[in-house]
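ok so i was messing around last nite and threw this chain in just to see what happens. nothing serious, just curious
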Amino acid sequence: MQAAQTSLGLKVPQEMSFLGFDDTEACMGALPPLTSFRQPREEMGRKAMETLLVRIEKGYGKGACVHLLLGAELVERRSVATIPAKERAAAGGRG
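result:
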């Protein structure tokens, strides 16, 4: 993001939007603060532990796959431009 602003002379978010993943503390310290997805880390750890315990108890070995879908939360900050509702509708988006 810094390179886009300094080297390329782009205005964030007016000319280019940035979105992160993991919502680390660095997101808040970025200029402008970085919009990011926050993952449910505690739930991920809990599910991993539950899966491991089931594998140990039932004697599952390699090859048994578990697929989990966990939600993520969008933490909106100032690194993403707002798209007017009219443009969202034209692009097939919601809102």
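not much to say yet. The chain has a mean pLDDT of 86.
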